[in-house]
Amino acid sequence: MTARALATVEQAEHAVRGRLGGRAPSVALVLGSGLGALVERIAGAVTIAFSDIPGFPPSTVAGHAGRLVAGTLDGTPVFAFAGRYHLYEGHRAADVVLPIRLAHALGARTLFVSNAAGGIRRAFRPGDLMLVRDHINLMGRNPLAGPAQPGEARFPDMSDPYDHGLLARLRDAAAASRLTVVEGVYAAVLGPSYETPAEVRMLERIGADAVGMSTVPEVLAARALGMRVAGVSCITNQAAGIGPSALDHAAVLAVTARVGDDFERLVRAFVSTLDG
Questions:
Q1: Average pLDDT over residues 209-235
Q2: Which domain holds residue 186?
Q3: In angstroms, rounded to a whole number, what is the distance separating the alpha carbons of residues 170 and 273?
Q4: What is the rounded distance in angstroms from the CA atom of residue 54 to the CA atom of residue 188?
Q5: Is 186 labeled as catalytic in the residue annotation?
C-alpha cells in the first residue's frame, strides 16, 4: 500500500466516523454476489453509499449494491459491505482491500467474508453453503506487495487464514439453524472469464473444492492487520466440465436469491455468538 493509499484509508475513516455518531463495529461483513439482502436485517442502520466514501470507486458488478451499512445484527455491532471490489474490474489491489482496512481502522477485529463460487468437488450442488477452511491464491496479485505499512505484518502467518475457532462457531451455527453445510478449499482466480474445463481439472488436482474471483485479497489484508477471519461460499453452479450447463452470471444471482434465507439464518446465528 502506497503513502497515497494510506492517506485514503485515513480520509475514508474520517468521513465515515463522522456519520456513525460514535458507534464502532466489532465485526465486518463482506457480502458477495447476490448476498447483500442481509443488510435489511441490521437494526439502527446507517447507510453510506460507496460513492460517498473517499477512495471508494464506483461499484460496477450486478449483484453488488455498493453500500456500507452500520448498525447491529442480533445484538452485535457490525459493518456490512453490500458488495465488493474485484481485481478484474481494473482496480488496484489497495482499492480492493480498502473496505477491510477501513473497517479495522474503525474498530472491527473480526471479518466475515462471503462469495458466490463454482463447485469443483463433484459432490457439490448449486445452493450448497461451503464453510471455507483454506484458500489457494491464483490471482497473481497480493495487496500486501509494496512498502510495509504501519500496523500491518510484513510477513503475515497464513497457516490458519480462516480461524479454527470461528469455523467451529460456523458449524455450531449451522447445526443450531438446522442447515446442512459443506466445507472446503476456495481457489481465487483473476477472472473475469469463467474457467475452462481443463483449468477446472487442474484446480481439482491441486486441492480446490470451489473457485471464484474474489475474497482472497480481503483475507490477506485482514490477516496482516491481525483480524480473525471466517468465510462462506455459496456454490452457485458446477464448474465447467463438472456440470452440463453453460455458465452465466444471471444464473449465479438466481441461485444466491434462492438460498438467501438459509444464508441469512447461518450468518445471523454465527454473528450472535461473537463478541468482537
A1: 97
A2: 3-271
A3: 10
A4: 27
A5: no
**Residue 42 CA to its chain's centroid (Å):** 18
From 161, 40, 32, select the one nearest 86 (Cα to Cα).
32
Choice among 135, 214, 230, 239 that is catalytic: 214
What does the alpha-carbon distance between residue 79 and residue 72 come to, in Å, rounded to a whole number?
8
Mean pLDDT to the nearest integer, 230-236: 96
Catalytically annotated residue among 5, 12, 59, 64: 64
104 catalytic per annotation: no
Question: CATH number for the domain including 49?
Answer: 3.40.50.1580
Catalytic residue chosen out of the listed positions 88, 183, 202, 264: 88
**CA distances from residue 231 to 31, 86, 112, 135 in whole angstroms, order as listed:** 10, 17, 6, 10
Tell me, yes or no, if 33 is annotated catalytic.
yes
Question: Is 177 part of a structural domain of the chain?
Answer: yes
The answer to whether the pTM exceeds 0.85 is: yes
Active-site residue identified among 105, 152, 177, 249: 249
Express as a percent the part of the chain with pLDDT over 90: 71
What local confidence, expressed as pLDDT, does residue 251 receive?
80
Q: What is the pLDDT of residue 8?
A: 85
Q: Is residue 146 part of a domain?
A: yes
Considering 59, 115, 233, 237, which one is annotated as catalytic? 237
Q: Is residue 176 part of a domain?
A: yes
Q: Is a pLDDT exceeding 80 seen at residue 33? A: no
> What does the pLDDT read at residue 149?
82
Q: For residue 88, indicate whether it is catalytic.
A: yes
Question: Mean pLDDT, to the nearest integer, of 122-143?
Answer: 96
92 in a structural domain: yes
Q: Please give the tally of structural domains in the chain.
A: 1
Among this protein's residues, is 213 annotated catalytic?
Answer: yes
164 flagged as catalytic: no
What is residue 37's predicted lDDT score, i.e. its pLDDT?
85
